[in-house]
């Protein structure tokens, strides 16, 4: 649900929690998860001070693919590939499947990054 208001004479529309949904992407939930994974990958690469070439070697990708990911162009890259990148960077990835609460009929996908 978006809210509209006027600030200093300018009409502003406040978005929801998912910018991809706000923009009308049909795969918005998947895009948010990918964005979170790429953000963590970028954080690790920056912390280590790796060049894109060095990162490409570690991740098993090409340098142009690393560049694209870091620029937010990750369409066509699977969630599985991004999870593999995290394990190659020395991170454990844990996937937990559990029942949904009674208050919801269907499940949801969330990502917790520590």
Kindly describe this structure:
The protein has helices at 19-22, 28-48, 52-59, 63-70, 79-88; strands at residues 3-7, 10-14. With 114 residues, the chain is mainly alpha-helical. The chain has a domain at 27-88: 434 Repressor (Amino-terminal Domain), CATH 1.10.260.40. A two-stranded antiparallel sheet has the order 1-2. A hairpin with a 2-residue loop joins β1 (3-7) and β2. It is globular. The model has no long low-confidence stretch (mean pLDDT 92).
Pick out the low-confidence regions.
none
Task: Say how many strands there are.
Answer: 2
End-to-end C-alpha gap: 29 Å
The level of helicity is 40-55%
Order of helices and strands: EEHHHHH
CATH superfamily of the domain at 27-88: lambda repressor-like DNA-binding domains
Oligomerization state: single chain
- Structural class assignment: mainly alpha
Largest sheet: 2 strands, antiparallel
* Large-scale geometry: globular
* Averaged pLDDT: 92
Number of contiguous helices: 5
> CATH top level of the domain at 27-88?
Mainly Alpha
CATH topology of the domain at 27-88: 434 Repressor (Amino-terminal Domain)
Any guess at the CATH architecture of the domain at 27-88? Answer: Orthogonal Bundle
Q: Approximately what portion of the residues adopt beta-strand conformation?
A: 5-15%
What's the Cα radius of gyration? Answer: 17 Å
Q: Going across the biggest sheet, name each strand in turn.
A: 1-2
SSE layout and pairing:
Blueprint lengths: L2 E5 L2 E5 L4 H4 L5 H21 L3 H8 L3 H8 L8 H10 L26
Antiparallel strand pairs: 1-2
Helix pairs in contact: 2-5, 3-4
């Amino acid at each position: 649900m978006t809210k509209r208001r006027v600030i200093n004479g300018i009409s502003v529309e406040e978005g929801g929690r998912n910018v991809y949904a706000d923009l009308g992407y049909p795969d918005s939930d998947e895009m948010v998860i990918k964005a979170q994974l790429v953000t963590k990958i970028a954080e690790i690469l920056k912390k280590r001070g790796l060049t894109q070439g060095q990162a490409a070697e570690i991740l098993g990708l090409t340098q142009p693919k690393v560049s694209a990911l870091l620029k937010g162009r990750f369409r066509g890259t699977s969630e599985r590939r991004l999870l593999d990148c995290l394990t190659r960077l020395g991170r454990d990835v844990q996937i937990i499947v559990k029942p949904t609460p009674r208050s919801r009929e269907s499940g949801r996908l969330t990502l917790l990054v520590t």
